[in-house]
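Why does residue order matter? Because the sequence determines the fold. Keep that principle in mind as you read this record.
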Amino acid sequence: MMQSLILENPETLAWANTAEPVLAEGEALVRVHRCGLCGTDFHAFAGKQPLFQYPRRLGHELCVEIISSVEDRESSGALYAVEPYYFCGNCPACRAGKTNCCANLKVLGVHIDGGLAPRIAVPRDKLHRTRSLSPDQVALVEPLVIGAHGVERAALKPGEPAVILGMGPIGLAAAIFAKEAGVDLACVDVQADRLAFACDKMQLGKPIRADGDLPRTLLEHFGQLPSVVIDATGNAASMKQTFHLAEHGGRIVFIGLFLGELGFDDPNFHRRELSLMASRAGLPGTFDRVIHLMETDRVDVLPLITHRFHFAETQERLPLLSGEPGLVKAMVHFD
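Structure:
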């Protein structure tokens, strides 16, 4: 038996003695070293996560080590990032290679019990090995993948003007990879402390407050409107404004989402011949690309971790995290 932390109902976390994982074919038994916490976990705790089923063990941003797998005896001690997206492989999206939008997608820690336990079973093909990253870096791979995939969708070109709206964790992740792509980047948020973190601490781009006449501010900064607008706010008003922020012929990518319908002015949309794209989760290849960029020091990600605590403290700390000042990423340690 082992101690797991279970979200029994909204706002009700409880410790439980759970059985050791039983491996199915193709699975590996892994030891959890780190588990990052994100908005999905906070929303689930608050009862605001759509399609979430209780009770559930949270945790999908993981650094793990294989402790029982015949195939990996030779790599004992190696660390792996977990790809928490379980796709069917048979639906049209999967057959087209877009496994991130599988019609039957299940996510670890949302539809399947996650990583807030000392040991879990994970399909072997969901493990992405690193040869040099630290446990903290490995646990950041999954949220970074979400930002990286949004940047992949935007098809950024070096030197072109781009703006990212919302400097929360996913907006920061997108900004990290937009900067790596070599664009002329502006970072927009309503909160001065978030802009300071993105632009002063992490040096990701030009800080611009989301107040006043934002289209005019961007026009004055770039000499044109941005060719690419990435919205990571999940705010309907911000998302609607993107149609007036993008230059003629520009691209808009929505990484953030909200529960509702979004309207826009069709003549403006057509006149500018805008390309509008959604971005969801990430692809297996994106995990490998993100790990490579981290291993070769092309992106600096450790400043994202602002809060740390041990697994034994999680029941007490998680309910309070979303209101703690300066929170970007909280990391749970199991060592």
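The two ends are 18 Å apart (CA to CA).
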